[in-house]
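Kindly go through the following sequence and its backbone structure tokens. Advise at your convenience whether the structure tokens fit the sequence:

___
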Amino acid sequence: MNFEIFGEISEIETVAIGKAICELRRLEKFYGKARWRKMKGVALIRLSDETIRRAELHWYETHGVGKKEFKRKRYLD
């Protein structure tokens, strides 16, 4: 992750649940079997060069493990 989340994530939506997630086998191998969800949302992020931008983020989450593997998909500003 070459950025830091700066503030809260808003506009959170579920993209996929369970077997609809392409990376499900890998997630279960690394973090354990659970009801995984692929999520997306919008947040302010601080890049490695200290600039702050608004971006769409995607991540995986499940109860008991939390949010994992944040990815920046696109800038919104």
Q: What stands out?
A: DSSP finds one helix and five strands in the chain. Strands lie at 3-5, 10-17, 37-47, 52-62, 66-75. The longest strand covers residues 37-47. The chain has a mean pLDDT of 95.
